[in-house]
Amino acid sequence: MSRAKVNIAVFVSGGGTNLQALIDKQKSGIIKSGEIKLVVSSNKDAFALERAKKANIPCAVVSKKECGSQEEFEKKLRELLKENKIELIVLAGFMCILSESFTSKYPKRIINVHPSLIPSFCGKGYYGLKVHEAALEYGVKVTGATVHFVNEIPDGGEIIMQRAVEVSDGDTPETLQKRVMVNAEWIILPQAVEKVSAQLLAEKK
Ligand code: GAR
Known about the structure:
Layout: E1 6-12, H1 17-27, E2 34-41, H2 48-54, E3 59-61, H3 64-67, H4 70-83, E4 88-91, H5 100-103, E5 110-114, H6 129-138, E6 142-149, E7 159-166, H7 173-204
Parallel strand pairs: 1-2, 1-4, 2-3, 4-5
Antiparallel strand pairs: 5-6, 6-7
Helix pairs in contact: 1-7, 6-7
This protein binds glycinamide ribonucleotide.
Glycinamide ribonucleotide (GAR) binds next to helix 1, strand 5 and helix 7.
């Protein structure tokens, strides 16, 4: 007999607005095939941890610096995932790159939200506000967000969902970031999490 829900871990590093969108959509029933069982932050001061605590979700901090090496960092992450019987990992503003040795252990079980329309403005060095700075610098008139599976290529895994957002005259990286979050990321990340969780549930039956 299979369990009713997929166990989800959300990896964060900062403000955690995408984590908040996941928590809210779980409460409202849009995410119904999975349940957030664990939040892992790479940064002990991340506001995302406050959001997790407020929602009564267990959290952990795993700092790459304190671990001393990528191997040790990923070993700690793997231990936490095993202890909590995690089946799906969601990178929601997680600012650390995971090695192939890690990603290959969870094929099609790690998803990431990126604040551009991949393949534009993605890969190594493109994260957070830098993505929006690059989009404005280039002069694109449309940008957006992408949710994709994570493999060994940074931002290179199969695309699950995308949503476009118009760039406005006079946008700053900050105004553009906010519009992309509100009109794309916070909508498609929960939708993609539900889609993948439902697929994983169906596979278990
Ligand atoms: C989000 O815009 C997310 O797409 C981006 O960082 C921000 C985190 O905000 N992620 C990346 O750039 C990953 N390459 P949040 O902590 O408020 O969710």
